[in-house]
Amino acid sequence: MKTIVHISCDFPDPMVMAKTKGVVSFVDNTPGFRHVVFSLNRANWRSNLVALEFAPDRTAIAYGAPPKGLMLEKRLLPVADYIREDLTSKGIAPDLFHAHKLTVEGLIAHRLSGEFGAPYIANIWADTDIKVMSARRDLAGKWQAIMRGASRLLPCAPWTADRFIADHDLDPAKLEVMMPIIKQKQVRAPVVTGDARLVTLFNLDQHRRKNLKGLLGAVVELRRSDPRVTLDIWGMGNAETLCDVDAMITARAARDYITLKGPLPQGAFESTLNGYTAFAMPTLRETFGMVFIEALLCGLPVLHTRGWGIDGVYPEDTIGYAWNHRTQADIVAGLRYLIANEARLKANLRALAESGAFEQHGQDVIVAQYRRILSEACGEVGHQEADQPQVALA
Question: H or E segment at 142?
Fold first, then answer.
């Protein structure tokens, strides 16, 4: 049995239980490998390291480092040293390291790969990796060495692959797009409303990043020419956030047609979204944005961001409108386009579902891809591809 050593900042552990479960889904659903996980947690402005083994082959590490990538490589060296010593003391011989983010975990995997003589693969988590690379241009040589040394680089969206190939002169054969797993299994048949009921959904604490201000301004402007337009805002946030968002709506005198809805009722995600005209979230930066795919599966055309997020996963004119994030006016144009073309876009979504195009987002398909990547990277053979699920319209 081959041993995969995972180095991840996004694995739930006793230090931070509320992390996303994306990495867990890959680890738990690829039996046949021994998965050894080191879960990293940065402690602001500390200098020490604390490790806690919380399950067999599961270790949480708190390491001290300043924010914003300051002293990034220097503060990760002790983490790499700890992982090396821990593996050695336990007699664990890695066959493959998986760095779940290029510019953080990749620094560790690159170092350990040389010390153990084992290959490594690395995810490109675009927004974070682009920010870190931009902030730490002094490490440009290191980034290049990490990318060239990896057995495989795994960007999560087509635009990410295109951008990194162009910006870093990478061999396209080294990159393979591996999208996040979408848990939603059912595909809703689109319903043409003939109306202008818009919806958005996200963690409201991230409203600046999601450009809610831009969306509100666009809805207010569009309402002047189309009095049917409404916007429902679903999502949770802390007390300060909710006050801020409510104040933004009130300041625009838009309470009659822009509504802060709160969290979606449990079990009502698909049925609730299915009744809207379109989904809109004009994010300024977005690594992927699973909610866009979830909206498509609920039968909604989407307004997303050109050059970020899901751009390139489907032809733009098939699923909605990709706005130019450099101009506020394009949000208005995008919303107007979604409303005017609702019937055609929803017919496109129905055709995509019936053709099986949405199956690529299912857990079984992506886990099978990941199993193959692990097998190829560490020389393991004999793993069978999982059956691909059949998607039916509900």
Answer: helix 140-149
Angle 362-368-371 from CA coordinates, rounded to 5°:
140
b (16+ CB within 10 A) / e for 223-252: beeeeebbbbbbbebeeebbebbeebbeee
Beta strand pairing call for 58-65 and 49-55: antiparallel
Task: Go through the domains of the chain in sequence order and give each one's CATH number.
Answer: 2-181+362-378 (3.40.50.2000), 197-355 (3.40.50.2000)
Give the number of other CB atoms < 10 A from CB of residue 112.
22
The tokens 């690529």 sit on which residue?
Answer: 360
Query: Which residue's structure tokens are 């990709």?
Result: 322
Question: By three-state DSSP, how is residue 370 classified?
Answer: helix
Non-local CB neighbours of 17 within 8 Å, separated by 6+ positions: none
Instruction: Look up residue 329 and give its two tokens.
Output: 């006016």
Report DSSP state, residue 190: P
User: What are the C-alpha distances in Å from 286 to residues 128, 185, 207, 282?
Assistant: 10, 23, 13, 10
Residues forming a β-bridge with 60: 39, 52
Long-range contacts of 130-134 (CB under 8 A, 24+ apart): 130/163, 131/69, 132/69, 132/72, 132/103, 132/104, 133/103
- Angstrom distances, CA of residue 262 to CA of 183, 193, 232, 235, 304: 22, 23, 10, 5, 22
pLDDT, averaged in runs of 10, over the chain (394 residues): 96 91 92 97 93 97 91 94 98 98 97 97 94 93 96 96 95 95 87 97 96 98 97 96 97 97 89 96 94 96 96 93 93 98 98 94 94 90 39 44
105 CB-side CA count, 13 A: 28
Q: Which residue has the tokens 């760095």?
A: 99
Q: How far is CA 94 from CA 97, 183, 246, in A?
A: 7, 30, 52
Residue pair 68/96 in contact by the 8 Å Cβ criterion: no
Query: Given the structure tokens 């809109």, which residue do they identify?
Result: 280
